[in-house]
Amino acid sequence: MASCWVKMHHANEHSLPFCAGVLNMIRLCLSVAVLGLMLTTRALAAPSSSVAWTTETVALIRSGNPVTGKQLSYGCAGCHGTEGLGVSPAYPHIAGQDAFYLFKQLQDFKDGSRDNPQMTGIVASLSERDMADIAAYYAAMQGAAPVRGSSHSAVVDLVSRGQGSRMIPACSGCHGTGGKGNSGYYGMPVLAGQKAVYISIALRQYRAGDRANDVYSVMRAIAENLTDNEITVLGKYYATQDPRQ
Fold first, then answer.
1. C-alpha distances out from residue 5 to 19, 21, 28, 223, Å
2. Which of 2, 24, 134, 200 has the fewest CB atoms found within 10 Å of its own CB?
3. Do 176 and 156 sit in the same domain of this protein?
4. Domain for residue 239, yes or no?
């Protein structure tokens, strides 16, 4: 670490990328450490979902057929639009969303892990194969265009570094840079380009315990330490990020 700081002091075009990579890795490790500490300081809840990332489940999702998924998605357009873009602030964009995340949410709606009577009724007749196909269809779509706006340095710092003193890990540790996803973790949603209102609603639901399908209550533990203002600006920040880049 010390040698990296020396290199940065005498930086050139060759040393800077190396040091930046080291610092990014350190930040990720710190985020993981904060998250681990946070979970050990509260009672560990049982996994709030019946979805397990077994070899069979992963293979099923990866084999999803978007053509079949399109045929099965006729009931989705009323809320999510024909292009996978939510028709009102309360309905999320699902175009370009991570297939593993979409599959998990559909499963959670069906088994009651995520409470939403409207969605529960829609997915009631879907098989796991159907869900994998629908997830593949929407994941293959182009994500939503970002809204215009700028972000205050405080929210950028919260996203990229977190705040260990308040047990808040960096959002980017799980959701990737700019909220563009993280293929290293199954089921992590893409946040870039998502509606600000929807993200804020979701965070408030986690904080209140009204949404409880986050495995081991990770998002509930994080959200309960966020202020109302932080929840609002986080939603606005991710709405300005471009998932298409």
1. 8, 13, 18, 34
2. 2
3. yes
4. yes
Domain of residue 35: give its range: 1-41+144-245
Full-model pTM: 0.82
Are residues 203 and 157 both part of a single domain? yes
Query: Alpha helix locations (H) across 140-227?
Result: 153-161, 172-175, 196-208, 218-223
Give the 3-state secondary structure of residue 98: coil
Along the 245 residues of the chain, how does pLDDT read in single tens digits? 444 433 333 444 344 444 444 454 555 555 555 555 555 444 455 547 788 999 999 999 999 999 999 999 999 999 999 999 999 999 999 999 999 999 999 999 999 999 999 999 999 999 999 999 999 999 999 999 999 887 778 899 999 999 999 999 999 999 999 999 998 999 999 999 999 999 999 999 999 999 999 988 999 999 999 999 999 999 999 999 999 88
- As a whole number of angstroms, the distance between CA 221 and CA 209 comes to 10
* C-beta separation of 172 from 37 below 8 A: no
Q: How far apart are CA 119 and CA 140, in angstroms?
A: 21
In angstroms, rounded to a whole number, what is the distance separating the alpha carbons of residues 226 and 245? 28
Please give the DSSP secondary-structure letter assigned to residue 122.
Answer: H
12 occurs within a structural domain: yes
CA pair distance 79, 66, nearest whole angstrom: 19
Distances (CA, A) of 81 to 99, 142, 192, 195: 18, 13, 18, 14
